[in-house]
Amino acid sequence: MMMSRAWTCSDVGSFAWRTCTSRWPTILDGLRQDVPEFDLPLGALRDEIAGGTVQPLADDVVEAPRWSAVLPFVGQAWTSLPWYLAESFLYARIRAAVCFAQTHADPFLPTKMREERALPALAEDHPAVDVVAAGLWRSLWGNRADLSLPSAMMHTGSDAADLVADERPAALALLATAQVVGILLDNAGVELACDLSLTRLLLRRRKRVILFCKDVPFFVSDATVADVVRTAALLDLECPPELEIVDDAFFTGPGFLATTEIPAPLARRLGGCDVVIAKGDCNYRRLVGDIPPSSDAFADVVTFPAPLIALRTLKAEVLVGGDPARIAQARARDEDWLVSGRCGLVQVAPLGR
């Protein structure tokens, strides 16, 4: 159940509003430098967001039918849109501007590859260490590496004091008994390398792992199948039969990750996992309905087909539950604690509903 209305880009002063009015034009400016052959349509999209009105996808764009939710906002300012709908639609418009359906060329690949050149060597953990716990920890903080919000990468280290919710014991208990583990991937590059390191550890424990990734370029650095294959090769990670890589158009669409909105075939596939790890802000926002901070328990808000572990560093003003004492400490350390990427969380919804 959704406990509050979702953020809209018209909430002046909010991170959603700043994203729409500042971050998106900046992202488009950077993209125009990387794919200068599409400077004209990308520049027009930038101007539309900055001072124009929402325009629909052309009827001949393959994915146009799934964006019917945008149609009531056509002719209005972009700030009139709900935040997640606006953000996901932005990337549909970017794909149309760069003719992705025709070329299948990822316009963000130059940005992703610049980060991949600096991929850290992921050493094996010491045998005395709980390696799954260490892999989960590394995967959590790898989420700071977000090319759509580079400032989050300024934070380094992995201090447990920076967790606003720490349900690691429950998460590790789920992983210990699971035979099939799903991972909803977030960013390519450093974060994906950390996620693949965790994947390797799970495979060595004879678990089956399903990596759910994006079917098309999305949110600048979100991982596609091509990103997973390329990064696995860089890390010398073989893809045994126990590792499955799945993409689905729902992950790049406007719907939330609630049981009632996930298409039935995908819901069944997710429900076949003993536990699903959801990485990052975008997945978290979709799990809880993109709402402002709420004291409601995470497990009470989420309606998902399988037991769930959320791993995330905070880069949006969205938080359900959390430890009040830890939140107070985070606020005292960092006035931008909800969006800076310094703080993180591990939350569990143990029963699929």
Q: How would you describe the overall organization of this protein?
A:
With 353 residues, the protein is α/β, with parallel strands linked by helices. It folds into two domains: 15-107, no CATH class; 127-349, Rossmann fold (3-Layer(aba) Sandwich). The chain has 13 helices and seven strands. It has helices at 15-34, 39-51, 83-97, 100-103, 109-116, 131-142, 168-177, 190-204, 225-234, 264-271, 280-288, 298-301, 324-333; strands spanning 163-166, 180-184, 208-213, 243-247, 275-279, 308-313, 344-349. Helix 8 links the parallel strand 2 and strand 3 (208-213). The longest helix is centred in the N-terminal third of the chain and has 20 residues, at 15-34. The chain is globular, with a radius of gyration of 19 Å.
Question: What is the gist of this entry?
Answer:
This protein has 353 residues and is of the alpha/beta class. 39% of the residues lie in helices and 10% in strands.
Keywords:
353 residues; alpha/beta; Rossmann fold; 2 domains; 7-stranded mixed sheet
The CATH class label of the largest domain is: Alpha Beta
Tally of helical segments: 13
What gross morphology would you assign? globular
Instruction: Classify the fold: give the CATH topology of the largest domain.
Output: Rossmann fold
Q: Please identify, by name, the CATH architecture of the largest domain.
A: 3-Layer(aba) Sandwich
Low-confidence stretches: none
CATH superfamily of the largest domain: Uncharacterised protein PF01937, DUF89, domain 3
Radius of gyration: 19 Å
Report on the biggest sheet. Answer: 7 strands, mixed
Q: Which structural class do you get from the secondary structure elements? A: alpha/beta
Strand order of the largest sheet: 1-7-6-5-2-3-4
How much of the polypeptide forms β-strand, as a percent range? 5-15%
Percentage of residues assigned to helices? 25-40%
Number of strands: 7
Order of helices and strands: HHHHHHEHEHEHEHEHHEHE
Mean pLDDT reading = 93
Termini gap: 11 Å
For the record, the count of structural domains works out to: 2
